[in-house]
Amino acid sequence: MQNEKEEELHGLLNGHFKYKRDPNGAIDKTKVICVVCGKEFAYHRSSSSLKYHLNSKHVLASTAVTSPPAATVSNLRQTTLTETSRHKLSKSTSQSLTNAISKWIAMDCRPINVVEDRGLMDAFRIASSDTTYTPPSRGTVLSRINQLYDTEKKSKRDTLAQTKHVALTGDHWTSISNHNYLGVTAHVIDCDWKLKSFALTVLKSVTRHYSDACAEQFLTVADDWGVREKVTTVGTDSARNMVAAARKLPFHHMPCAAHIVQRAITVCLSDSGFADTLTKCRKIVGHFKHSPANTEELHLQQIAQGQQREQLIQDVSTRWNSSLDMITRLLRNEEAVKTTLAQQKHKLVMLTASEWDKLPKLQNLLEPCKYVTELLGGEAYVSCSVVLPAFCHLHHVMRVSDEDPAYVARFKTAFSKDLAERQADMNGEWLKLASALDPRFKDLKCLSRGEREQVWSSLEKILQEGGFSADTPQPCEEHEPTKKKRVLLLGSDSDSEEENHHSNALHRYRAEPSIGMDECPLEWWSAHAGAHVKLSSLACKYLATPATTVPCERLFSLAGTVVQNKRASLNLENVNKLVCLSNWLKEK
Description:
Residues 506-585 form the HAT C-terminal dimerisation domain. By secondary structure, the chain is of the alpha/beta class.
């Protein structure tokens, strides 16, 4: 009997308990530790407390006491109710995860049915340690996206309500499903002197793009957002229907400066000494682009010459600066291209030595145009005031020098002439005032001396007329009669004092030192708005206008990721919500 008791105790100690060891490594036989849960017990040669612990905490372990040889610690542990619910996501956490999934789908333009992917569910279960987690249904996600859209739209409405001046840009886009949309973006300077740019709508267009229909669409968008009385300018490309539509709107028209530069490049390249050279370049690039085998042979030559593996670039007539990108990449891989073609059988007409020499000259001509296009295409900073200085820079670099070959001189002359003609059709008055109100360019060195004084006179006239809010463009024929009427008012003492007050305000502003080119004009106005109250209101109005319609182009690039082959049948309202919501969330 005594032997059985000792064996039982021995089995308990060896199977489910062990003696405690002191810090020095000595075994303390007065204390034992449960190997299952690690709890410590006092041991005085009695197994009662140890059996009670097994029976109450580890039921499976207690049943195995009578058969210690076959039992192991790992398969004796019982999963308790607390352990099974330990990794169960709480309701609030599950709701937050659902909101995050909906926001991710909206912001990154993912299809809503992605929540039905088995792989996504497995990933969430591993990340949350909840093996029972199930992603939200498509209906739940769509409902959350609609709620998120309403919330973000209200935020944008509040932003527009707090500003006095709103500039719009608009353009048309045709989706892969052959549906046409009008994209409209808004640009404002808020009360903190921060430039805000965001989408207003991607509106389905079912009528032909006649000028009347286009003008009506812009007015509909302005009315829907409640900003018709605040709109100052509408930016469009130079398409005839858009220009005609802008004339019918009660807003100033701002033609896209980037389109003007690129159009001038296209026209001049087609009628210059570079046309035949570019045609040969396109065929050489196409020889490699259309054949994986030819491309691989080119890559081998690039590696052999210590160059990086890279594809050649084909220019596209509708892709800005693509001709420059094509010749830049071709020049960088000139030797590899020549060597590869020399080892192949082909019917290409190779570039002559003189034509290879033309490419660096064309590259030098187009690089300033690319710089100006990218500079004017930004929407996170003030760009309208940069148009005239940028065009002045282009006219300067396109001056003909004595060292220029005949074909370069012909291109420069044609480009300068074409750019000047297109620039004359722009809203020059608005651009001049914007440059004057930008502390970087207020010296107006991009204009002649006579034009500079006319700009300051126009600003003084606006101050006298109280033009601090959105006004409508006035025909040019009315400028001269207005001047004559002002002469009749010079005898009034009150008017004279008012004019002196506005004149002094302009003198104070002109006396301010200009800031550096890398500094932000809005930060300057934020710090000096108190000293130039009326001029700051005009700066907020004129500097908010973008120089290009690139924001709409970016909006259409975003729309192209929403309306794709597998989602070509999206509801038109959902297209608008998904594109706008993605734009708003990425802005944050």
